[in-house]
Amino acid sequence: MPLKWSFTVVSSHFSSVQASAIAEQALTANFLNQTLTLKTGSNYNIKQTIVRKLPFIIILILVFSFKSQIYSQSIILNRNLNWTKSVKKIKNEQINKNKALIYHLLRFKNANYASRKDFLPVYDELIALNSEKYSVELRDMQFVVLTSDEKKLFTKNQIPFKIEYDKEILYQRKAPHLSISVFPFKQNVQNGEIYKLTSFKIVLTEQSSSTKTSKTKSFNTLNSVLSSGNWVKIKIQESGIYRISFNELENLGISNPQNLHIFGNGGSMLSYSNEDEQPDDLSEIDILVKDNYILFYGDGTVQWKYDSLNQVFKQTMNLYSDYAYYFLSSDYNNGRDNKIKSELQSTDPTTKTITIFDDFAYHEIDSINLIKSGRLWVGELFDFQTEYDFSFNFPNLVAGNSLSLNSSLLARSPISSSFSISFAGAVFNSSFSSVSYDYIATYATHKNENFTTSSPSGDLINVKLT
Predict the structure, then answer these.
(1) Phi-psi region for residue 396, left (φ > 0), alpha (ψ -120 to 50) or beta?
(2) What is the mean pLDDT of the segment spanning 21-25?
(3) pLDDT tens, 264-295?
(4) Relative to the CA of 283, which of 144, 161, 232, 292 has its CA 20 to 30 Å away?
(5) What's the whole-number mean pLDDT along residues 107-116?
(6) Who wins on pLDDT, 251 or 410?
(7) What percent of the chain has pLDDT above 90?
(8) What is the 3 state secondary structure string of the chain?
């Protein structure tokens, strides 16, 4: 039962803690690759931070032409889902024709029920195009929370944490059409609330060769900053402020620490898209020079980004390097002032005092690639050892706030299997269906789940996986 974990614990004014995990199971070879992320609260005074929340999406089954708003090369189609009261559908069992099953269905106009076995509606639409070179985006999505009666028709395992949709280009009478299918429900990753889509826009943007060329950055650096002078290469692993004393710099071979210059692009992965702009040389990092040391901010190999759709922070590890590298020299001088200046204390009145903030931590070991291909790696082995414990220390943890464990589990086993997750005193179970060991079959079962409990007293968060 190989696993890959990622946990996030949150304790804040938002009363949220989040975590995510990915697990894999197999009968004989079981692995665990864990990532834990914990958010906590502490007493600090900081300026107010405003977080903007974004909405969600969906779609139907009709054929439309391009009678819509056109901005530049984009076509915008406004869509509304007109939800009605749930209806009853009676279906006879094949075993006993005299016995009938009654299904309650959520309904909107032109809803499609044929693509899912759980009788939840899907929005399908077929859109006529004048070219197959269009990108598709859903924008300005509006949602409403399910009513108490509607919630009875769901299990949370059915609902993804973001709107999911499929799209493909089809041809009818040699003319291209876009087929789009949207599942109009999503679940809040922190509190488990389920939302249904009410309106959205389909934005179609034509992808011409000239458009792609304009997005590609022209590389115009003739010589790298490393082409001359004496340079020292250092490595870091975590993001944060780093201090280097003048003595350490001199021992490294830096002749004039007062004139130090630092270059580097951080530890994040390059984009997989060739159209995205990429630096064609190392960027200079501003530094703070003190009496006998310098300070600089180094960007490590783990990046934290806010997922506005699910209202959580998520981490991304660099899959290709465990370290970020920076280059130091006192010989280089391009005339640019790289020193951080002191700023005067603001005299503006304090608008808000915040005493609780969100904090994060994670555990992840990427050591095993199950199919020896792709970017998914797992870690700890579940064979003779079938239990692992993890502890996370958060000073000044606010007791009683909501803690959320977001797990992404991957299981491979010819029979059904399960894990038990003990988190801050609560116990949760995660079950997996079996998979076929046929060569062309799906290799593993993948599930995303969210577990929520209350933060304990003290500074320690314990997680146990069995």
Answers:
(1) left
(2) 29
(3) 999 999 888 777 778 889 999 999 999 899 99
(4) 292
(5) 85
(6) 251
(7) 25
(8) CEEEECCCCCCCCCCCCCCCEEEECCCCCCEEECCCCCCCCCCCCCCCCCCCCCCCCCCCCCEECCCCEEECCEEEEEEECCEEEEEEEEEECCCCCCCEEEEEEEEECCCECCCCCCCCCEEEEEEECCCCCEEEEEEEEEEEECCHHHHCCCCHHHCCCCCEEEEEEEEECCEEEEEEEEECEEECCCCCCEEEEEEEEEEEEECCHHHHHHHCCCCCCCCCHHHCCCCEEEEECCCEEEEEEHHHHHHCCCCCHHHCEEECCCCCCCCCCCCCCCCCCCCEECEEECCCEEEEEECCCEEEEEECCCCEEEEEECCCCCCEEEEEECCCCCCCCCECCCCCCCCCCCCCCCCCCCCCCCCCCCCECCCCCCCCCECEECCCCCCEEEEEECCCCCCCCEEEEEEEEEECCCCCEEEEEEECCEEEEEEECCCCCCCCCCCCEEEEEEEEEECCCCCEEEEEEC
What gap in Å lies between CA 400 and CA 13, rounded to an integer?
12
Bridge-based pairing state of the strands 83-92 and 100-108: antiparallel
| Selection from 103, 34, 8, 84 nearest residue 404 by Cα | 8
Which residues contact residue 106 at a Cβ distance below 8 angstroms, ignoring those fewer than 6 apart? Answer: 83, 86, 120, 121, 150, 153, 196
Give phi and psi for 72, each to the nearest 5.
55, -120
Find, among 119, 231, 129, the residue nearest to 173 by Cα.
129
pLDDT of 416 over the 60 cut: yes
Amino acid identity, residue 421? Answer: I
pLDDT for position 187:
86
Residue in this structure with the two tokens 């992840």, named with its chain if needed = 364
